[in-house]
Design brief:
The protein has 252 residues and is mainly α. The chain has one domain (3-251). Helices cover 82% and strands 0% of the residues. The chain contains 10 helices and no strands. It has helices at 3-22, 27-36, 41-62, 71-94, 97-130, 138-154, 159-170, 175-200, 205-225, 231-251. Helix 5 packs parallel to helix 7, helix 5 runs antiparallel to helix 10 and helix 7 crosses helix 8.
């Protein structure tokens, strides 16, 4: 990697670490950057996944106060996230590379729709909570958490947004506590998938190391300052890089 590539990937990792901590679509920042530098789609996805694991841990630590009292829930949900992440990783490694190039543009498009719709989803869930529609349906959440884990192990963009939506309709707690739990589950999903990829996939270790280091800083910045970011600007940036990724995959 030359100096310019290192800087670009480091900035993308920094942004992805912060975005993942705040909302959960950081892959839509780093994945297109790796594609732009000529890495094969599956290699870019695997390297990106491993690189973002330290950032997920950093974000979870940054939200540790909101995790108070959620240990049992995190363990129970985490088991399903780990199983789902492992399943998704195995699917990625066993399905043909052409299947990835066909499926992922659809995943990215769906992720972008979720990114754009996230404020409306959050608003409706908050209105339900304010109307006193408190509820706890943790068992109902389990299959959705597993499914999100499969998605996260295979690709992962916007898995955090999906988890927040699941928590909004199954748990009775505020958004910050759900966001803290989301960071833990997304980290577990990426972690188990990354562990599988280390031993069974073609990893570009240079970009992986750069993303890992910068995403740790981004995770801390996201936990501390993320709520101050202009949400409209952030979503516009994510949509732009997401569309760039779709075009890169479709046009080669």
């Amino acid at each position: 990697m030359d100096f310019g590539e290192v800087i670009a990937i480091a900035l993308a990792g920094l942004a992805a670490g912060a975005v993942n901590t705040v909302v959960g679509s950081g892959t839509l920042v780093t994945f297109p950057v790796l594609l732009a530098f000529g890495y094969a789609p599956v290699t870019a996805n695997v390297s990106n996944n491993i690189g973002l694991v330290p950032g997920a841990i950093s974000g979870a630590v940054g939200y540790r106060r909101e995790l108070a009292g959620q240990r049992g829930r995190a363990i129970r949900f985490g088991c399903f996230s780990v199983l789902g992440g492992a399943t998704g990783a195995v699917l990625l490694l066993n399905l043909p590379a052409e299947a990835f190039k066909t499926i992922v543009p659809v995943f990215i498009a769906l992720a972008l729709v979720l990114v754009v719709a996230q404020p409306r989803i959050a608003k409706r869930l908050d209105e339900r909570r304010k109307r006193g529609e408190d509820h706890e349906h943790t068992k109902a959440a389990l299959p959705f958490i597993f499914g999100t884990g499969v998605y996260g192990g295979y690709f992962g963009a916007a898995q955090g947004i999906i988890l927040l939506a699941v928590f909004g309709v199954t748990l009775s707690q505020d958004l910050h506590r759900s966001n803290a739990l989301k960071n833990v589950l997304a980290g577990l999903t990426n972690g188990v998938a990354g562990l599988i990829f280390v031993f069974a996939a073609d990893v570009a270790w240079g970009p992986t190391a750069v993303i890992a280091g910068s995403s740790v800083i981004g995770g801390q910045l996201g936990a501390r300052y993320g709520r101050r970011l202009d949400p409209v600007a952030l979503r516009v940036l994510i949509v732009v890089v997401g569309v760039a990724a779709i075009l890169k995959l479709l046009l080669g």
